[in-house]
Amino acid sequence: MISDLNLVKEAAVEAGGVILNYYKADYDIQEKGYHNPVTTADRKADTRLKEILLKARPDYGWLSEETVDSAERLEKRRVWVVDPLDGTKEFIEGVPHFVVSIALVENGQPIIGVLYNPVTGEIFTATQEKGACLNGEPIHCTAKENVREMIILNSRSETRQGLWELYAGTFGELRAIGSVAYKLGLTAAGQADIFATLRPKNE
């Protein structure tokens, strides 16, 4: 039987292919709430992930940003936690800062995490046993101590609004990147030193 990690990787790549079918193409956009869009790509990728993951592991629970929640998952020992397209605003703008985000949680503790950027081909994986990897190679966070040498990943929207201008001379570089999950992956891979936001986040 395929391992949970390999199953998640295959599912993420499959969902990424679904997303690419709509990238810079025609699709519907709806608003779930204030500044919270959802597209055809979000919904189609969510459907495909659910098909793959629950078919392979029917005894696991399901929690997704794009699926109506069910209390049944609270009775499951293991639960898939999914955001089929984290970075929807960037996807809409044609900016390749978005990922398929999948985690497997066991008794409330994450045991597997996978992020997949279908445009760049980056696949971030993490398990309790094997640590974190990017495209199969081990990764780790940086260990810089001088903030003036640090690369800070921040929000594209916060940058556009000028909220980071006050800190322009504080760090080595301010780099505006979309998708919270993608920023976390890049930081874990040592491609930046800190992911920071000036506003509360739900993640």
Automatic annotation (TrEMBL):
Biological processes annotated in GO: inositol metabolic process; signal transduction
Gene3D superfamilies the UniProt entry points to: Fructose-1,6-Bisphosphatase, subunit A, domain 1
Pfam family, one: Inositol_P
InterPro entries attached to this UniProt entry: Inositol_monophosphatase-like
Keyword Signal (UniProt): no
Keywords on record: Hydrolase, Magnesium, Metal-binding
Coiled-coil ranges (or none): none
A single MF term (Gene Ontology): metal ion binding
Cofactor needs: Mg(2+)
Keyword Metal-binding carried by entry: yes
Protein name as annotated: 3'(2'),5'-bisphosphate nucleotidase CysQ
Organism: marine metagenome
